[in-house]
Design a protein that fits this description.
The structure holds three protein chains of three kinds. By secondary structure, chain A is mainly α. Chain A has two domains: 127 residues; 153 residues, no CATH class. Chain A contains nine helices and no strands. Chain A is flat. Chain B has two domains: 149 residues, Beta Polymerase, domain 2; 142 residues, Rossmann fold. Chain C folds into four domains: 81 residues, no CATH class; 122 residues, ACT domain (Alpha-Beta Plaits, 2-Layer Sandwich), CATH 3.30.70.260; 117 residues, no CATH class; 105 residues, no CATH class. In chain C, helix 2 packs antiparallel against helix 5, helix 3 crosses helix 4 and helix 8 runs antiparallel to helix 9. Classes of the chains: A mainly alpha, B alpha/beta, C alpha+beta. Chains in contact: A-B, A-C, B-C. At the A-C interface, helix 7 and helix 8 of A face helix 2, strand 7, strand 10, strand 21 and helix 9 of C.
Chain lengths: 284, 349, 478
């Protein structure tokens, strides 16, 4: 377990460094900052994956845990979430050359790993019988990938609000010229949500099918299920407003941010509400 | 020992305009011819509307103080003391300053870089450059690029029209998908339109109260013509509006813009009101997704950019000092028969 | 009236209300999940509780108004979306065969006008004669995976429409059908289905409530723990289901592995210790004594007798100072004993298996007093466990599953397919011909730009070009 903690703490250090560089890049024009941000991020990811690998190996020492992902605890979940946020950022950055968005997105990865290291218990335990199913390798991963994509969209949304404010103030600073244009940010926000929405809904449906196999009911209005549905409803509202009503700009971003608030609540807040589904209830 | 010198007249000298004007009319090959007659085989003539300068390398054996006579001969008018003569390190420094745009009317302007490059290439073609000038000019051009890239001397647009065009890009990104409507057909309207065209705006339309002038401008710019009565309706399909008519009263009212925004389902609208008095009702800026920039806003940004450029001059000068020293040392060593190596040789600038 | 229901505003409002109602149900204690919390709430806030009760807020998801909202949403989806088939942009019916040549001019003029409005436009001249040009155009597009529709051919000119991934327009439609299907499946479950928790003591049996003829027998209940802990690694029941004495089915069910009898499924959902035990083992110094529940036994070598009467599987002291159990799992087993000598009975003493140094004395009111280091300790408890069998019947599940698959198909079609359409107009131009193409993409203008240019380049290349390719982009009105 110590190796695991050393590796993830190293990963955290590199993520913090990358995030700091990303924020610095907002205020300076030095291209090298962006380059090093990506490099530090990449190294952080490698350490992160290493820590993951070690954790998996130790997890599988307990025979009942083979061959499942160790995603049942807060620690494992936060860790994967941070990894997915970073991965999505890499894909988006590569496609659109938007390193400057790092300052808006990478904090989530850092917060994810940081929370895991500071608050979550890295203890490895055997899975409770209810989780010993191949579904644990699919359902949580799919949902958390969607959450990570929504985190990226949120970052883009914040950038959009910043840019919009800059231009509306009629006194734009240098940042205004370095951030992508309002249209580009709006389109990017929309595209990420369009990509993430099907993933979210499929993840919810997978949960239902697993629940049917484990507890006999497809949908029980359990807090986690309900809030995942609420998240999907809010983003569906966003998509409808955009498709049907042509809603753009600030109002659309507010709706998408409400959706992300729901994502955060679904992932974190629900643990205080639900016994069945919660990480904090200890049983996972 | 040979020297590197520069002599010339620039806008920095009062009263030199008429002489400069005459010098500008002289063709470069003529100047080279005359320089060769004097036994100078390495020279570059830089002739722009703001300066006339000759950079040359000679062997000290030649005549002293021939420069003024030479210039007066070229210009055909007396020059008095309005010329500048610099040699050695000072000449190197001056060349670098010129290339970096620090000696220009508008600090950091990029036109001069192209002009220096053109002058150098012309001199090369005429066989008037040797090792010294080649190295000096190539290095100067590279320094000019570096200064503009690494310091803020050329950052930020400094004319109202270019500021507006740049702002349009911060809203829409690439303008190739945008439709701009110009209200008015005067000089400022045309200037704004040209800046937008320079940024590759997708579609351009003109609307003017007097049809004839509008049609004329439209055909000159390759733009479409919009009926003056139809501009309210046209707002629906337009992303950028440039208002530059001489109307005394607002041409676009708050209500019109609001109505148009409703039909456009919230797509951004950038209104550039460079008319005096303003053509567009000021309160339109408060409408969601409308960005109304008035003349004073654009001017404010342009002025701020200019101030920022000037602040960056110090930075650029530090760079120039460093490079001057390096190049001067190299030049002096070369004269002494040694050849030092220079730091990071760039590819052809 | 239906106009209101069909307006986007109303539907977004409806969605928001359903969202809020769902959220409420997670914040207000619900009877189906935590009945004890509901009781607690009602005790603390009696007035609010009356209001809540009126709106059935303690069972939001099964209340009439909530289910009514869901039904309204289903109806709305049908009215707004499913009533009419998805539009197929820009397909116009052809003039009938007979009048084709006569109509040709008008039809072609119409096409030309329509083409001018498309977001993309390309123009070029081909060296091929008219007929060949048309053929080449169709072949070129066909090779690129476009399907040709609305094929018009006359002497004056030819026009056709070519589409790629035409199916994309069904994506949204399917997704909405899926939603209605899923809601339908849920309705069927609500009406015809049931869920019941049947706790069966190991070795015992119990009848179901929803199917009173059916009896569940748990012949054996196995539970395995992770070594050194009290956390179960697996548990299973050897389950037998009989109806009126006849065996229906039997299977050893594990978690995630239920028994299915004609759609009624039996799940190993939970387990626990109810308080019954077969024996409790006490140790006094060197001697060990095994006590069955509620049997007074004499301690050999002493005048004392001892009896163990109550067991709590997860011992805890509640806020009133009384003994209580935190859960039904064997996390902290405790047994209550009392000693007797002749007619004298001691007060009951609680012994904890995990904490031999701590014990509690219970006074007449049931309040506990902490005493340390009893000279005897509880070494082992053999509890009688019960197996929590969840019996569920969900006739709507297959429909929900079908809906889920439709949803997946709809999502893929809507978001991952890229529908592209070209309107092609070919007209004879002396011995050569003129080609005009209009383009449209379901993904919005900028996405299609590069591909359109490349496509046109290819098309022109295959037609022995006579003139330059002119591509223009028109920013369309919304």
């Amino acid at each position: 377990m110590t190796i695991q903690m050393v590796l993830i703490k190293l990963a955290l250090a590199f993520y913090v460094g990358a995030t700091a560089l990303a924020v610095a890049f907002l205020f300076s024009r030095e291209e090298k900052l962006s380059l090093w941000m990506l490099r530090l991020l990449g190294i952080g990811v490698l350490f992160h994956l290493g820590s993951f690998g070690v954790r998996q190996y130790l997890f599988w020492q307990i025979p009942e845990n083979r061959w499942f992902f160790s995603i049942n605890s807060f620690f494992g979940a936060l860790s994967y979430l941070a990894l997915a946020v970073t991965a999505t950022f890499f894909i988006v950055e590569r496609e659109h050359r938007l390193g400057i968005l790092g300052a808006f997105v990478l904090p989530w990865a850092t917060i994810g790993v940081g929370s895991a290291v500071i608050f979550a218990d890295p203890k490895l335990e055997g899975l409770v019988p209810a989780l010993q199913s191949y579904w644990i390798n699919i359902h949580p991963i799919v949902l958390m990938t969607a959450y990570a994509m929504f985190a990226n969209a949120f970052g883009v949304g914040v950038a959009l609000l910043v840019q919009e404010h800059q231009i509306k103030s009629r006194k734009p600073t240098e940042l205004c010229y370095r951030l992508p244009s309002i249209e580009e940010l709006d389109t990017l926000n929309y595209k990420i949500i369009v990509a993430a929405f099907p993933v979210l809904t499929v993840g919810i449906i997978m949960g239902g099918i697993w629940a049917y196999n484990a507890w006999g009911r497809f949908w029980g209005w359990d807090a986690k299920e309900t809030w995942a549905l609420i998240t999907a409803l809010i983003y569906a509202g966003y998509l409808h407003m955009r498709f049907v009503k042509g809603l753009r700009g600030r109002k659309a971003v507010y709706v998408s941010m409400l959706g992300f608030a729901s994502v955060v609540f679904t992932f974190l807040g629900v643990n205080y509400l639900s016994q069945l589904h919660g990480y904090l209830s200890g049983r996972g | 020992m040979g020297r590197f010198c520069v002599v010339g007249l620039s806008h920095k000298r009062q009263g030199s305009e008429s002489a400069r004007g005459r010098l500008a009319a002289v063709a470069a090959p003529d100047v080279y011819e005359r320089l060769r007659e004097r036994g100078i085989c390495e020279a570059v003539v830089l002739s722009t509307c703001n300066r006339f300068e000759i950079y040359w390398c000679d062997d000290a054996s030649g005549e002293q103080d021939w420069e003024r006579g030479f210039l007066e001969e070229l210009a055909g008018v007396p020059i008095g003391e309005r010329h500048d003569l610099r040699c050695d390190a000072a000449a190197v420094g001056h060349l670098l300053e010129v290339a970096c745009g620090l000696d220009s009317l508008v600090v950091g302007e990029s036109e001069i870089l192209g002009q220096v490059k053109g002058a150098y290439e012309a001199a090369q073609a005429a066989g008037m450059t040797g090792k010294r000038l080649n190295v000096l000019f190539q290095r100067a051009l590279y320094a000019g690029k570096r200064a503009r890239r690494e310091t803020g001397i050329s950052a930020g647009q400094i004319s109202v029209a270019s500021v507006a065009a740049q702002l349009a890009e911060t809203i829409f990104g690439s303008l190739s998908g945008s439709h701009a409507l110009i209200l008015g057909a005067g000089a400022t309207a045309e200037l704004a339109a040209r800046h937008l065209l320079g940024r590759k705006v997708g579609r351009l339309s003109i609307a003017n109260r007097t049809l004839e002038r509008g049609r004329e401008l439209a055909s000159r710019l390759g733009a479409a013509l919009v009926d003056w009565e139809q501009i309210s309706a046209a707002l629906e399909g337009v992303d950028i509006v440039v208002a530059s008519t001489s109307a005394g009263e607002p041409v676009l009212r708050h209500a019109q813009v609001e109505e148009a925004m409703r039909r456009r389902s919230g797509r951004s609208l950038f209104i550039i009101d460079i008319a005096m008095p303003p053509n567009v009702e000021e309160t339109a800026h408060r409408i969601e997704h409308v960005y109304l920039y008035r003349l004073l806003d654009l001017q404010g940004i342009a002025d701020a950019n200019l101030r920022a450029r000037q602040k960056a001059v110090e930075q650029a000068q530090a760079l120039i000092r460093e490079k001057t020293e390096e190049l001067w040392r190299w030049l002096a060593a070369l004269e002494a028969g040694q050849e030092l190596s220079l730091k990071h040789s760039p590819a052809r600038p | 009236m239906t106009k209101v229901f069909r307006s986007v505003r109303f539907n977004i409002f409806l969605g928001a209300v359903i969202t809020l109602a769902s959220a409420m149900g997670t914040l207000i204690p619900q009877i189906t999940e935590t009945p004890e919390k509901v009781a607690q709430f009602q005790g603390v806030h009696p007035h609010w509780s009356r209001l809540f009760g009126f709106f059935n807020l303690f069972d939001v998801y099964h209340s009439y108004w909530f289910m009514g909202l869901l039904a309204l949403m289903a109806v709305d989806i049908i009215l707004c979306k499913l009533w009419s088939l998805p539009p197929d942009q820009g397909l116009v019916s052809l003039p009938p065969e007979e009048t084709r040549e006569l109509e040709a001019e008008r039809h072609l003029a119409q096409k030309d006008a329509a083409l001018k409005l498309k977001p993309y436009r390309a123009d070029f001249k081909s060296a091929f004669p008219y007929n060949k040009a048309v053929e080449q155009a169709k072949k070129g597009l066909d090779q690129r995976g476009y399907a040709i529709q609305e094929d018009f051919f006359a002497q004056a000119g030819a026009a056709f429409v070519a589409t790629r991934h035409r199916a994309q327009r069904w994506g949204s439609y399917l997704a909405h059908i899926a939603l209605v299907t899923i809601l339908l499946g849920a309705l069927i479950r609500a009406v015809f289905g049931f869920v019941e928790m049947v706790p069966v003591i190991e070795g015992g049996s119990r009848a179901m409530q929803n199917k009173p003829d059916w009896n569940l027998f748990v012949d054996k209940f196995d539970i395995k723990y992770y070594p050194g802990t009290r956390d179960p690694s697996s548990y299973a029941s050897a389950l037998r289901v009989e109806s009126r004495g006849k065996l229906l089915a039997q299977k050893t069910i594990h978690v995630n592995d239920p028994l299915d009898i004609g759609g009624v499924r039996f799940y190993q959902a939970s387990w626990g210790a109810g308080g019954m035990f077969r024996s409790a083992t006490l140790k006094f110094g060197d001697s060990v004594i095994r006590l069955p529940q509620r049997v007074l036994k004499k301690i050999p070598g002493t005048p004392l007798s001892v009896e163990a009467d109550v067991m709590l599987p997860d011992f805890t002291v509640d806020q009133d100072g009384q003994a209580d159990t935190g859960s039904l799992e064997l996390k902290d087993p405790a047994v209550r004993v009392f000693f007797q000598m002749g007619p004298h009975k001691t007060r009951p003493i609680w012994l904890l298996q995990k904490f031999p140094n701590i014990s509690f004395v219970e006074n007449d009111d049931g309040i506990l007093e902490h005493i340390l280091r009893p000279p005897f300790r509880l070494v082992d408890v053999d509890p009688v466990l019960f197996s929590g069998i969840q019996v569920a019947y969900d006739p709507g599940f297959k429909i929900v599953l079908a809906g889920a698959i439709l949803w997946l198909a709809g999502m893929i079609m809507l978001f991952y397919l890229h529908r592209r359409r070209l309107w092609v107009l070919v007209e004879p131009d002396g011995r050569a011909s003129r080609v005009c193409v209009g383009g449209w993409s379901s993904r919005g203008p900028r996405e299609f730009e590069a591909e359109f240019a490349a496509l046109m380049g290819e098309l022109r290349g295959g037609m022995e070009p006579r003139s330059d390719l002119l591509i223009s982009r028109q920013v369309p009105a919304p």
